[in-house]
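Tokens in:
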């Protein structure tokens, strides 16, 4: 499901995201702002984020991404040593290339050029 058209399956998601996303989730406010801004705007640009080892340096097609920098950062935190935390990388992409997998509104997939991604 594309980020710009989530209400096809959940008609109240833009008005009541708390039904689908816990306010306890790191970065939930940021994710909701991005989701609402993307609504009906497939050609708009959005910033996506992911934590990755320093040698990665880029977001690639098929990568797990988030619309929340704070949420992405939680996935790069080292369990015991903050000096080993992974950096968060970001990229501006068209909203139409960001797909939701149906599980968490802070987690998406980056699929550029794919029209009917599940």
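Residues out:
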């Amino acid at each position: 499901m594309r980020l710009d058209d989530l209400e096809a399956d959940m008609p109240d998601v833009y008005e009541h995201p708390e039904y689908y996303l816990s306010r306890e989730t790191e970065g939930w406010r940021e994710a909701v702002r991005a989701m609402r801004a993307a609504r009906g705007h497939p050609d708009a640009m959005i910033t996506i984020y992911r934590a990755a080892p320093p040698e990665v340096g880029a977001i690639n097609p098929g990568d797990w991404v988030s619309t929340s920098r704070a949420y992405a950062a939680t996935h790069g935190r080292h369990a015991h040593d903050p000096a080993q935390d992974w950096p968060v990388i970001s990229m501006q992409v068209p909203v139409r290339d960001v797909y939701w997998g149906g599980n968490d509104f802070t987690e998406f997939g980056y699929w550029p050029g794919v029209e009917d991604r599940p």
